[in-house]
Structures are given as C-alpha cells and as structure tokens.
Amino acid sequence: MQELNRILSLIDSYFGGSQWFVFLLLGTGLFFTLYLRFPQIRFFRHAFKVVGGKYDNKHDLGDTSHFQALSTALSGTVGTGNIAGVALAIHLGGPSALLWMLVTAFLGMTTKMVEVTLSHKYREQTENGTISGGPMYYMKNRLHMPWLAALFAVATIFSSFGTGCLPQINSISNAMFTAFGVPLYITGVVLAILLGVIVIGGIKRIALVSERLVPFMAVVYFFGAISVLVSNYQNIIPAISAVFGNVFSGTAATGGFLGATIVWAFNRGVNRGLFSNEAGQGSAPIAHAAAKTEEPVSEGMVALLEPFIDTIIICSLTGLVILSSGAWMEKFENKFQQADTVVLAGQYDESAPQDKAAVSAHVMGQQRLPLFTGNLEVKDGRIMNRDITLLHARSFAENVRVMDSKKLFTGTIPVVKGHLSLPVSKEDEVYLTGKSLLHSAPLSTAAFKKGLLGDWGQYIIPLSLLLFAFTTAVAWAYYGDRAVTYLWGTRYVRFYHIIYVVGFFLASFTDTTIVWAFSGITVALMTLPNLIGILLLHKEVKSSVSDYWKSVRK
Questions:
Q1: CB half-sphere exposure, 164, CA atoms < 13 A
Q2: What is residue 345's DSSP assignment?
Q3: Which residues are CB-contacts of 234 (< 8 A; sequence separation ≥ 6)?
Q4: Count of alpha carbons within 13 Å of 360, Cβ hemisphere only?
Q5: Cβ-count burial 426-462 (b if 16+ within 10 Å, e if not)
Q6: Distance between CA 46 and CA 48 in Å, rounded?
Q7: Which of 99, 102, 351, 486 keeps 20 to 30 A from 372, CA to CA?
Q8: pTM of the entire structure?
Q9: 204-226 pLDDT, tens digit each
Q10: CA gap 70, 198 in Å, rounded
C-alpha cells in the first residue's frame, strides 16, 4: 500500500504538484482576467441578476434553470476541498496556503466564465432528448480536434473517480467513524445505495436534489463556523496576519507545526484551491450546458459566481476557523496512518532547539536526515528502540502505542527506508496510536470543537461532509456519464453508473493519503486539454462577451 502511495505521489509531483502546472493554471486565469478587463468585478452584480431569473425564458432549450445549474455545479465543487482540502493545505503549507487558495479563486472566476461560455455555445442534444455539453464539444465542433475532445472525455471519466467519487466517500466515512464510531463499510453501503437511486434519475433528479440541499448545507456550515470564530474572536486578527504576513517568507516552526516553505504554501494552496473550485478543470461546463438559455455568455456569468461562493466564502471560513482555534499547530490523540508515518535513524528531542530545527529542515525538504531501516522491537505496545525518532503527519509523535486490533502488540515491525513495512494481511490489524498533528477532515473536526458548541461542534464536520461530499459525488456521476455519452453513446451510461457506485463503496475504507494523491493526478489530466482549448479560442470568447454585454445594456 505504501509503495503504491509513493508511486502515485511521484506521478502527482510531475503533474498537479509541479510548479509548471501551477503557473499554467494561474497564468491562464490571469491572462483572461486582464484580456477581458476583470470580468469577475465588472459583471459581478449582473451575474446575481441572471441567477435570480431576470433574463429567463421558459421556452429556451435546456433541462435546468440557471439556479439549478448553479446549484448542481456548486454541489460538484462544494465538497471535501472546502473542509478536508483547506485543512490539508494549511497542514502542508502553513497559513499562507489559504491566501494562494483565494488568489486561485479570484482568477478562477474568469476561467470558469470562459470555459462555461464556450461549452454552452457548442452543446448538443442527444438521441434521448437530453442536453449534453462540456469542453469536449467545443473541442470537436469548433476546434475540430476530436482527439483532444476524446482525451478530455477519458480524463473526465477518470477524474469523476479521482475528484468526485473516491475522496468524497473516503472523507465522509472517516469523519463518521471518528465522530460516531460508524464502521467505514456501513457508511459506504448506505450512501452507495442512495447514490445509485439518485444518479439513475439523470440530470433532472440531480438538479432537484442539488437546488434544495446546497442552500441548506451552506447555511448550516456558515453558522457552525461563526460559532467558532465568535468564541475565538481575539485570534481572528492574528490569524489573518499569519495568512498575509508569511506569503513571501514561509511559515516558521510553531507549536507542534514544524514549518513550511513558500514553495509548499504556493503549490499546495493553488493545488487545493483548484481541487475546491475546479476552475479550469472543465467539470462545471458539463452541468451548465444543461441550463435553459440561448445566450451562452449569460450562463458564463452564472458560473463566475462559483469560485466566489465555493472558495472565497466557504474555504475562507474553514481556514479562519482552523487558524483562530489554534488546532493546526496542536497535537491530538489519533490513530496513525501508515502513509503519514516516518521513522528517522537517530534520536531527536523536540524540546532541543537544534534537534527541532534539523527535523524541521527535513520535513520541509531542505536537508534530509537518515531514515531508519531495520526492525522496531515492540513489547506490550511500547517501542523499545532508543536510536530512532518517530514522525507522524509532519510532526514529532508522542505517547506512541502499537496496537494489535484492540490489544497491545508485542513483536517486531519491519521498517524499510523510514516506512513501516507490515504484511498486507496485517496492515488493518496492527497500527500505531499517539499524539501528533492532524490534517484533512480530522483537523477541521478538532477546530470546530473549540467554539461555542464545545465538544458538540465536532459533529458539524461529519454532518457537513455528509451533505457536501455526497452531493459532490452525485454531480460528478453526471459529469462522468456525459463523457461516456460523448465517447460511446447513452447505451453504455448504465455500466458506468454501476462501476461508479461500486468504486464509491470501495473507497470508503481506502487509505486517505493515497486517495488524495490519485485525485491530484486526475485533476491535472482533465485540466490540461481544457486550458489548451480555451486559450486557443480567446478571441472568440472576447467577441462573444462584448456582443452579449452590448445587447444587455440596450
């Protein structure tokens, strides 16, 4: 399992985690922002009027209203990225990662408008009367590049698993287990059945579910976050200062947090920002293509609001909750994940400044320390080796105990190059517990416990994840079936749905770190063809936007 994680992480480092991908994503958003003269500011008020139905015509071709299309697209973006993704970005990159998420969202507002406009303009009607759209259609019908369209469609199918299916149920099941003790597979079975019932109903049923659930879940999460901020009001200004103050210097070690470089903050902030709002990925255009309107640019205006709602509002709330609560640099008792566990050769003391600085440099990739290879000798749950240092979640592990199911473990655990090397048959039975930093959903859960609701606050995250992530999985099932429709027609959609639902169930008990690594790869594979396409059609976009705005102002 760890070897698979290392392979996926290596591939991700050349795609979603690489600097060239980050600069291409931001560069595209910056180019269109300047080229179209800051449309996210100029058309902001107009976008709300379109969503409100001011320009609706019930006779226009389509399957959904503007609001339903926006709700469906938001249900596809408001998910684990807003809760677990923000927490992971701060864990890896420090407070400054949140700022880069916001920058990505601001530029992404323009990118989203552009990709939706083009995809809606070249949408098609299928043999069963439903609308099918997305970047693959403008690639085929306008660019006359069927090979690029096919590449995007295939990437969409893979991304439906990497973005919408696997990480969503993974975060839900782990959160439900942590908060309520519900076995992972039970959560997987129940939600997989519910998912299957919804996706069989197609876009109309999906839109109906989305327009009712999305506003409700946003309001619940908002008031939960406010309860934490009110309780920690004295830390809000310092939290904001930390976000902006360390942008060009990185974050120094503080508390249990061992530090982060500017490169990590930049890369992880942008990467998690894209995962959250999906601007440039080409997913939202598939939902918006179903909207009832003959004006493609008007639907682009609606899409402009998505990154604002998803990232600038919801992700900012999550980030401020985590930072103001102090949970991001505090250690908590937890069950260690093998993929996050590292064994260093040599004994390092966290209370000794020189030792802490050396381990901090190792974690940040500045100066690697020797990794331990050999056997951990364990007696009654205690590791007897004295010449090692155990790290978990990029922090010094404390009060470590080794468990064999529910009893203390006695025996040896092989370690190869710093990583535990348990037999596959023992990976789920033998595990480590102790105190360390948290990341992803567990970090957000710990932060929400530090508010007015006290320990009751921990239930906000699993319930929010249940709503956020499940609706994301529903929306992505639709994106994937439109890609299947483009490639092979509607007759194969049912087979795709079966595979999707089965994968959804299996991911409920898969290692979180591996799922996140896989999602980073699929995001990049889907985004690249779409960015190439919209850049090639930049002149057409500008002309369409200009003509539309003139007609509206008459």
A1: 32
A2: E
A3: none
A4: 21
A5: eeeebbbbbbbbbbbbbbbbbbbbbbebeeebbbbbb
A6: 5
A7: 351
A8: 0.84
A9: 777 777 778 878 888 888 888 99
A10: 18
